[in-house]
Queue: 2 jobs
Job 1
Amino acid sequence: MISSGALNRRRRIGKAALIAVPFTFLGYFFLYPLVSVLGISFFPDGEFSLSSFSTVLSRGSLREAIWFTVWQAVASTLLTLVVAMPAAYVFARFSFPGKSFFRAAITVPFVLPTVVVGAAYLALLGPNGPLGIDLRQTVWAILIAHIFYNYAVVVRTVGGLWAHLDPRLEEAARMLGAGRWRTFREVSLPLLRPAIAAASSIVFLFTFTSFGVVLILGGLSYSTIEVEIWRQTTAFLDLPVAGALAVLQLVGISAILVAYSRYQERRSVEQQLRPVVEVARRPRGRREQGLVWGTLGFTGLFLGTPLAVLVGQSLRVGGGYGFDAYRSLADASATLVPPVEAIGNSALFATTATAIALIVGILAAVLIAYYRGAVSRWFDVVLMLPLGTSAVTIGFGFLIALDTPIDLRTAPILVPIAHSLVAIPFVVRTAVPVMRSVRTRLREAGAVLGAPPARVWREIDLPLVFRAMLVGAGFAFAISLGEFGATSFIARPDAPTLPIAIFRLLGRAGAANFAQAMALSTVLMVMTAASILAIERFRVGEMGEF
Amino acid sequence: MLEATKLSVRFGEKVALDAVDLTVADGEILAVLGPSGSGKTTLLRVIAGLQTPDSGSLSWDGRPLEHVAAHERGFGLMFQDYVLFPHKTVGGNVAFGLRMVGMADDRMAARVSEVLDWVGLPGYQDRSVGNLSGGEQQRVALARALAPDPRMLMLDEPVGSLDRSLRERLVGELRHLFVERAITTLYVTHDQEEALGLADRIVIMREGSVAQEGTPEQVWRHPAGEWVARFLGFDNILDATVADGLADTGFGRFEISGDVVGSHRLVVRPDGFKVSPTGTVRGRVVTRRFRGGHYRLQVETGGGVLLEMELDEQPVPMVGDTVTLSVDPDAVVVLD
């Protein structure tokens, strides 16, 4: 018989151990680099000074980058909303053959690595593209790529709410004499506002911190803050200015997040939501058929063309087609290491990052889901911070912070650690709701039957949470495969990941290098899509709406 | 006047409406009565223009409605469980239809307060619809449908989700309002008491077709067939041989009106029995329930037939008593 005091002590030790692992990990690999970024920008020479900030604000090219970052994010957000709204409606309100396949397919662009999207648009809108127009280094290429990237966010978020809106609300407006447009404006749109706000803030955040797409498509003409941080660090070695830019970007991101959470608290319209099955129906009549198939056709073309062109360009050999570019990936003559090695590097890094993200993420999720109180609530917030911190800032922070107490900056493990930081919030977000949904009664039943807490977790919670963990693992793997921003600071030249190898190839002149970049992008796209499609198989219900 | 001819709607294999004919005269209150799945809501949606029929025609005052969109038909529709706009106040909900016709602000405010008065919610304009009780929501929905002065008002189970006493009071209020304002009304319900108490005319629907049509009295007195009789709550359905105005049921003979002869199925309404020493039907009381104004009894006759009856004259026999009953010829309906 264990005394209750001993039991309590054991529980407290267990909880402390639970906190220690994720706390230490995040403290050293996230908060410490972040603080170092603050340090280098406010204390450039060891003493407090705002000089790096005044440099940022007075130098024309940097002011321009800040202004461009803001307005392209606004424009990308608005354009994505407008372009994706019809598909959101069609997916919400109609059922049609192949719907679940279509739904999974439109998500693919969102999870594609930024480097792949950049490469695909370079292929589509470049001088050799099938459209015959060269939009490289124009803002249009960037905006279109951003719409492509975020299309699924609007369709899934706005469409997700739309699918639950009682269609009779719209019918009620029609019966009161409102036409289709008026019904949309006066009834659907206001009721969809929470989802539109959520989708807008996600799209804004992603495009505000856009790195790979802008770096590849904007060339030297356009750069975001993110690109400037990288450029100031790698090209000009001006770390205080890079730090100041990172701080300004953090302030911007925080402002958006605060505004969004304020908005969420304020909205108070109660809605009667209905199960999706009652709402979706087959299109009837020529008008609805036209809308559904027209929208799906546009979606297919808009999302499919860049990827098809990417694959097409990878198979291009002189005037004809062949696998030469793929075969040449094993050839090291033009590059430091054969590009094919990047595939192995990425697979290894992604596996390691997934393991780290799962271990830290699951421990953190257990803490958040099962322990109520200030510590776990505070932890919940801290865990989400890496999501709001740009990848470039994380990479920059690693570079300037992790030389003490031991110099980790060239350790190969650093790459998967950076990747896992980006992936942990996704793992936590998928696991926590499922853990919370395991009913207390089930656990009590296990306990009454004589199972100690750890046994209850293993026998009851774990089987139920296992699927969520698989989903989290799939996300972590895909994120790590495609991660570019942080990796671009810390990858060793002799151990490039796929995105790094693609970016290097894109920077070289010559058709052979371009074709190799396309081939490598295709490989990366297929690997990412495979891990995402694996997730779709395990996804239960509406878990993890990313 | 609304005229529907041979309306049919199919959902895949399932026939929701099968060649339904229906008219609603100006100022008339027509109730469409039927169990769930009988097609009554589909019929309403077709008339509203929210559902396209597979075949059949629909017209108002002789003008076809096929190519008139829902929002141009000028019909009001009050939905089952109301469907109030959650992002608008009570006043905003009621004013919605008025804004669609471009009414000026001052006239609109006056109209909103007028219809809110009609439904017994004066001064509710600025309330949020989230905080209303079920009965209040129902009234707001009614006010919203009435405000634009529709040429016909349609109601889909408008009191279905309210509790019994509130329901009865509201049905009375609704009839009063419709009659006083001469509102042409199409009222869909599954509840016979509601339909009988409210309508000028009733259409009973079964599996997508019209099973019977008539005034409440006609429907009540002469249900057309066993299905309608059972749906209206008449459970005393008996096989009898009729000769010389007398029906022989095997457990007793009684007079019926009309001049049928031979084998028939009869229904005896529960209010058609009386305890009488000269009665011809004998049986034993099996159950006895007090129902307020009357008692509801089940009496088992010879041959094991159970008769349902409502008795109100004292003394009401007790369970186990043997009783002799007479049957009112007017309460007997010959079904076929």
Job 2
Amino acid sequence: MEYLFTIWILVTLNFLLPRAMPGDPFLYMSADEGQEVARFSEEQRQYYLEYYGLDRPVAGQYLSYMSDLLRGNLGYSLYYNEPVSTIILRRLPWTTFLVIAAVLLSTVFGTILGSISAWYREKWPDKFLFFCLILLSEVPAFLLGLVLLFTFAAGLGLFPLSGAITHFANYSSWWERLFDILHHAFLPVMALTIARLGGMYLLSRNSMTTVLEKDYLRTAWAKGLPKKRIIFRHALRNAMLPIVTRVFLSLGSLVGGAILVENVFAYPGLGHLMREAVMVHDYPLVQGIFLVVTICVLLANFLADLVYKKLDPRISDYSGIHGG
Amino acid sequence: MTADQYLLEIKNLSITYHAVHPPVKAVDGVSLQLRKGESLGIIGESGCGKSTLALGIMGLIKQGIVEGEIIYKGQNLVGLPEKRLRNYRWKDMAMVFQNSLEVLNPVLSIGEQIGEPLRAHYNLSPMEIDQKVVKLLEMAGLEPEWRHYYPHQLSGGMRQRVLLAMALSCDPELLIVDEPTTSLDPASKNEVLQLLQKLQKKLGFAMILISHDLGAVKKLTSRVMTLYCGRVVESGITSEVLKNPMHCYTRGLLNSSPNFFRYKDLWGIGGEPPLGGSIEGCAFYPRCCQGEESCSQTRPPLRYVALERMVACHKGGIETFLRAEGIRKKYILKDREIEAVKGVSLEIKSGEVVALVGESGSGKSTLAHILAGVLPAGAGQVFFKNKKVEGRWATKMLGGMQIIFQDPFSATSHRMKVLEVVREPLDIIKWGSKEEREAEAIKALQKVQLPVSPEFLNRYCYALSGGQRQRLAIARALVTKPKLLIADEVTSMLDPSTQANLLRELKGLQNRHGFAMLYITHDLHLARKIADKVYVMYRGEIVEAGVSFEIFENPEHVYTKRLLREAFRDLV
């Protein structure tokens, strides 16, 4: 219920925001790249406005926008002349792939490194890791992307410069295709992962340090349990709670990071598409992208709630017996 | 007794936390022995090192240095690698941790937490573990269903039972129980204590009970140890120590415990424990009521002062101020011979208020006069600080003995001025200059709430009221700062408020400076309120003597019973 309400608010904002932006889509439709000279006559402009329904009062536009949405119709791109949903569906998997890969990698490595640091707190492994990762975490994702692009792709030629897949290639098997995809995705994913690693590391180091000091960990040691069980079942299990929250909550900002990185690597994801759509004031497309991204983030939050309830019995149970 | 008969023997154990500056020696040279099935209580204020000692035995000190020996079944555990220590934990020695929400893992079910040591140590199958967990929960008085729940769903009392069930999962031979009753309501507290008692009887484990709840310690342990600043200051048989503590610190703990002296006021131990660092002399010296300069020089060793009783004190424990042996006194009236006191022995220790109760004519006043050396005894001897009382030496000194007589009119000369009366004892011993003596006299007057205006100081005693005369007599006694005051019905003429204030003043002196008092009264309400020890006198004999909480709770002698019944009738 809460989620539905949130979605409604977001959709409405999504409708209003592009209309509040300065500029005129038809200016871009009719202009050559780099030029801003209108070639449409006033009659043609009027015709298009009417054709796209942009001359109707805002309330009317809003109603039809909403009813279209309910039918899954995201409108028609002004620039690409294709249904928005088709364009987005084509691009969405690439971004999803980037983001999920980066989240997984940064979380796994961040947690491992953070736990190592916490375990050897104030000793040399901790000091070394802390120094390196603080340094890394200060570099923004797109800059990191540029550096990676110049050294590994342009300089060393180890990775392709752009795109998500080799165009017009014929693959002899599915794994060859997979390899090509991974090959293309490697640098963008690395850029995103490394940019996020510092934050994850600090969080897990902190979380793990706190947990290691807890009374229940002392209890676990006292029980003479094997070290492995103490670390994984008792410590990590608790240390994961804030990490999981952070992962899901940061998905939104990660999409932001993905937009920049995709542009650096000319990776055909939603981010790349969004930049193009914004540049040409393609309202329906921009709205469509926003909508899909927000729904994805909300979905992630919803998922976070579910996972959190599984991980922490205290959350799912407000009706527990609380005694003095 | 050879060493291998002990289940656990600790020799000169010290634990220093070095992560803080200066390093804190939380446990300082503690030695103890524990036989199979025996139970030992460890008492002391918070921060005295009780919990550190427990963690030290379990080998759980993370940021500290452990020195000394912890010998469990002949094997020294200190310095053993974690891997080998792991085999002892829970299987041989387990611990019931102090109850808190965080002591159990919040994300694991109760059942898993109780059962996991079984898997770790005995490699049981999940089925077997579950069966054992059910048994353990039942044993701890919880329904087996609770194993599927999580710690936050339990009440404090249930959590305590879970902790107990968890500790007993591997049938340990030694159970360390840390504050099992804190934060529990009285009902669950009693239940948990009974459960511990029952389980110990049934399973036969040895137990170290760490608690500041002396009631729990009294109930569950046979021997007790008082810890102060990480050092053992007293050890002995629990019932004896709690009845008759021989170290000022243990006595202070008792005086702070409402469950022992029900009617007495609570008096905490003044001052605060020293902060960390190693202390040269006696650690308790700054707070001790009988401390002397010399106490701060060297550290007192723990020595036997009585059978099964060890005390670490330069003075051999709480000092005895007054000891009377076989006091007899006959009065001859015309042809009749009245035996007023028939062979009375008594003892007054430093910092004690001893009430001498009995009806009028039982010989109380006569005894008081003999004790103070005012009347010669027919037979028997009186010692003040182990020196025989002869003549007036004990009353003629600062910090000696003073007596306040029952009748203030004959005790203070009506022809003298107020200031002179109070100053007189100092004049007699020629203490200081006249000005100093007057200053002391004025202080003494303030203590008894008499005015100190020049007009009042120069008033003649005959112009004072009965209550004022009585207070004046008390001021006169206090001016020499006596260590022992024999007060014969001194507050009988005071109004309740003045009486309360005066008694609180005297109690304060008692707790701070080890001032002792023999309080002779027939007002049992008052005696019950202030006395530590009670002597009941009847027809010239002491018919019952003991700790006040025992006498007032469970009088044994017929006369005492009658006396108490009469006295407290108006209450019931």
